Amino acid sequence: MPATGPHATLMPNSSATMPRARPCATLDQHPQTARHPRCVPIRPEYQHNYGVLYIQGAGRHTIESLQETKATRQYICMAASPLPRWAPTPSPTRPLRSTSSSTVVASWRGWSACQLSPIFFPRRTSEPCTPSPANGVAAGGDRREESCVPEVFLTWEDLSVTVKNGRKDPVVILDGLSGYARPGEVLALMGPSGCGKTTLLDALAGRLEPSMKGRGDILINGRREKLAFGTSAYVTQENVLMATLTVAEAVRYSAQLQLPDSMSPSEKRSRADDAIKQMGLAAVAETRIGGRARKGISGGQQKRVSICIELLASPALIFLDEPTSGLDSAASYHVMSRIAGIARRGGTTVVAAIHQPSSEVFQLFHGLCLLAKGRTVYFGPASKAIEFFDSNGFPCPMRRNPSDHFLRMINTDFEESDEGSTVDMPHAAKVIQTLMASSVSLGTLRSEVEVSRTIKKGTCIIQKRQATFLTKSVVLTKRSMVNMYRDIGYYWLRFAIYIGLFLTIGTIFLNVGYTYASIQARASMLMYTSTFVTMMAIGSFPSFVEDMKVGINIIQSKHIHFSYEIVLHDHFPM
Ligand SMILES: Nc1ncnc2c1ncn2[C@@H]1O[C@H](COP(=O)(O)OP(=O)(O)OP(=O)(O)O)[C@@H](O)[C@H]1O
Predict the structure, then answer these.
(1) Residue 238 near ligand 1, beta carbon < 6 Å
(2) Its domain of life (predicted)?
(3) Do the domains 150-230+315-462 and 232-314 sit in the same CATH topology, yes or no?
């Protein structure tokens, strides 16, 4: 069977809850599909045994029956669950459906599983993926560690966040925000500095600080859901990386820790190397990341390493906080276009807080959430934002970057001190008021959120596998050893001190003899040695703290949504 089959999997019809991902059968491209573009052919031997169809980009569907169409020798899956209104053109993320609401049909013509599965979305099929220069898959192909990639339709409604910080009255940071992020799309969060972009990302990711209180609903596929390890990723504003490792080592160690043991070490390594190439880091792969003590790669390159590490496990939901900070405009475009490509091909949901994207980068966004002072000024398709500003009396001047225009119009921070400005601009507070009063976008948003709540209810969230405890222990020990011997202060300096210390102690207490007085000398030596060794251990704290930061960052970014039900349904202390 050719390896260019559709990216779909049949799963046992067990229960209403999503069964644990296990590959049962794959749907393969039938030659006849070319003649009948709206059907998914299924191998006859699987047609009676399985009841749940999962198609990447189309979600999970319970199959009531399969019908063979004699004319085309294809099977059409009859779905029990209601289906979303897909876009009329077939694409990896939006398969077609027939006019009948109960018939699952999809067109997988024109693109292959390999095209769907570049490095971040390896397939699990028995057949190797045919190498092709067009899709960039390495010879031998890679394998999907899960039989279905979960899709995440994220919605938030009336989301508010306050912080008390020792004050009597809590300060409102986010005020009644609503919105959604769709699979396969990039949602950009934009707004002036301090408007609440990071706080919104943190709230959505369930990472709010303990001092902050959230209220509102955050739903995944219409439900209050906890995401399994590895299903989501968060790239923070600061780069939390080990300074002593090279770029290649950092990514490879992360691959060994994040990817399941079912993948061989060589597969993990090749996935890491491909990821490095994808992020344009091949030239600096052997350069140390560096830190305060020793200069290494640049800040922008560090950011790309962080993104690279987070994308290794093919998360279904990615939060990016300032992914392009520190990057030049060309690098920003390349990084964002790769992220958009990953989202498109793998049905990944991307939410990115971003400062001043160039017009090329802006065009890559599907959705735009424009914030000002913790409130939504615009939410909708990025392509319609200019129209929205225009219709409200704030047209974007010719040849101005739209994102520049939006931010200039709604930035209130410098209004008081803007006397010297020669630009004739309307008062930002009034602009914000006018835009927020425009009921069109928010009304549409509400109905979209409602639709998303209903249409995506059946979509699955599956458990991602990860490396075993043993593998993690071995890899972490190895990484820690590498980190130690490369850190002069942490390892070599202390090593020299220990040698000096033991030479000194050895000299002082040489031939103490066997008299009663020597007992006291021996006790002093033991006390002295143990105290010194304990004190010297404190010297490892900075390194330990660095290790902890990396570890906590990984745990938080992989286990997000943990606190939804706990934090986000609390009410403000009034
Ligand atoms: N722990 C906190 N205590 C008090 N105020 C806070 C706290 N965290 C954030 N804020 C305030 O909340 C507002 C939003 O902060 P946030 O970091 O989300 O903004 P941002 O839009 O991401 O800014 P930037 O673009 O500059 O990173 C800011 O005014 C900030 O001062």
Answers:
(1) no
(2) Eukaryota
(3) yes
165 lines ligand 1 (CB under 6 A): yes
Q: Which atom of ligand 1 is nearest to the CA of 212?
A: 1
Distance 335 CA to ligand 1 centre (A): 25
CA of 196 to the centre of ligand 1 (A): 6
Report residue 320 as tokens. 């990016």
The first and second tokens of residue 153, run together, are: 């339709």
Report pLDDT digits (tens) over 274-302: 889 888 888 889 899 887 777 888 888 88
Mutate to test the pocket of ligand 1, among 159, 165, 190, 195 (most ligand atoms within 8 A of CB): 195
Q: Where are the domains of the chain?
A: 8-116, 150-230+315-462, 232-314
Which range, 59-73, 145-159, 189-203, 476-490, has the best average confidence (pLDDT)?
189-203
What is the pLDDT averaged over residues 429-449? 67
CA atoms within 13 A on the CB side of 157: 17
State the closest ligand 1 atom to the C-alpha of 195, by its place in the atom list counted from 1: 21
The answer to whether domain 232-314 has CATH 3.40.50.2000 is no
Ligand 1 midpoint to CA 285 (Å): 34
* pLDDT over 80 at 184, yes or no: yes
d(CA 245, CA 370) in angstroms, rounded, equals 38
Q: Ligand 1 pocket: which of 159, 172, 198, 204 to mutate (most atoms <8 Å of CB)? A: 198
* 334 φ/ψ angles, rounded to the nearest 5 degrees: -65, -45
Q: What is the pLDDT of residue 280?
A: 85
Which sign does the torsion angle of CA 209, 210, 213, 219 carry? positive
Instruction: Tell me the average pLDDT of the chain.
Output: 68
Q: Report the top-level CATH class of 150-230+315-462.
A: alpha beta
CB proximity list for 386: less than 8 A, separation 6 or greater: 395, 396, 402, 405
Q: How far apart are CA 109 and CA 436, in angstroms?
A: 43
> With contact defined as beta carbons under 8 Å apart, do 28 and 74 qualify?
no
Two structure tokens written together for 70: 């004699």
How far is ligand 1, taken at its centre, from the CA of residue 353, in Å? 13
Tens digit of each residue's pLDDT (9 = 90 or more) over 121-143: 222 333 333 333 333 333 333 33
